[in-house]
Each structure stands twice: as C-alpha cells, then as structure tokens.
Specification:
mainly alpha; Chitosanase, subunit A, domain 1
C-alpha cells in the first residue's frame, strides 16, 4: 500500500544498520543496506569499482530513501500490494534482489514467475488472503537463505530478520483489516 513505504523503510533500515564491509559478504561495502555496486549504478558510475568505498560510508538517509523507493519498493509494486505483503516483498527484495523476491511472490500466489510484479501478479495475489501470501513468502525465503553457502556465517542474523519481518508483516496486515 502506498502509505506503507515509510514504515517499511524504517523497518528495513533497522535490520540493515550502518556501514559494514564484511569479507564474507558478497555485497562488499554496504551502508544502510545499499551496496557499493547499487550506489554506483544509481549514480551512473561505471565501472562500479570507480566509486570509492568512502562514498558508501558517506551515504545519507535521503539518498538511501530515494534508492529504496525507486529500485526496490516501486520495482515490486509496493504501492499496489496488500498491507503486510508489501513490506514482506520489499524486505526480501532488499536482502536478496528484486527479481528473486518478485518471482517468490509470483510462485506463492500461483502466477507465472517472470520477475515482474504487474497486473497478472497483482490479480493472483488478490485471490489469496494476505496472511497466506505473507506466510508462504516467508517460508520460501527461509528455505532459500538456508541453502546459501554463507548460511553458517549469517544464518543467525537472517533468521532473526526473517522472523521479525514475519511478525511485522502480519501486524501490518492486521492493522489494515481493523
């Protein structure tokens, strides 16, 4: 839902935290969840390695919000999804990529998994109760994360994040229904 972007962004930022550059994280230098590669693409810098890590560290929340809105929320049609589903898909997209999150949503809704959340996907989602979509999406996400080779390193944090997303998404859905 349109009104949920700010709430979803606040939750994503709480999970993502500040600047990190963990040697085992394939994303490399990251700030507020925005990778160096993503920031370089956003700013039109090619190749992405030309963007100094110091630019990632200096990233401001205003630009972060713009990136998340355009590259993640809008890319998964967050404004058009039911409350709770919007946040669950958005967080999945931030953590694992827009195409993966969109295809997961499509699979749990019974739509063709093409990675584009358009009218057919939205219609498929509408045929299910939002709680059903949320729970199925979170289960699929957990399964995906557990298969990653970096699970041993990051699994505990991912589990906490996904459990938090599930609780928050269900709460958002409940608030919308009352």
């Amino acid at each position: 839902m349109k009104k949920n972007f700010r709430a979803g962004l606040a939750r994503v930022l709480a999970h993502e935290g500040g600047y990190v550059d963990h040697p085992l994280d394939p994303g490399g230098a990251t700030n507020f969840g925005i990778t160096r590669r993503t920031l370089a693409a956003w700013r039109g810098i090619r190749p992405w390695r030309k963007l100094p890590k110091s630019e990632v560290r200096a990233l401001k929340r205003r630009e972060v919000a713009q990136i998340y809105r355009a590259r993640y929320w809008d890319a998964v049609s967050g404004d058009k999804l039911p409350s709770g589903v919007d946040y669950a898909v958005f967080d999945y997209a931030v953590n694992s990529g827009v195409a993966r999150a969109a295809k997961a949503l499509q699979r749990v809704a019974g739509a063709r998994a093409d990675g584009i959340v358009g009218p057919l996907t939205l219609a498929a989602v509408a045929r299910h109760h939002p709680k059903t979509i949320i729970r199925r999406l979170i289960a699929r996400r957990r399964s995906f994360l557990q298969r990653l080779r970096t699970w041993k390193t990051f699994g505990r944090g991912w589990t906490a994040r996904v459990n938090g997303v599930l609780a928050d998404a269900l709460e958002m859905e409940k608030e919308q229904m009352t």
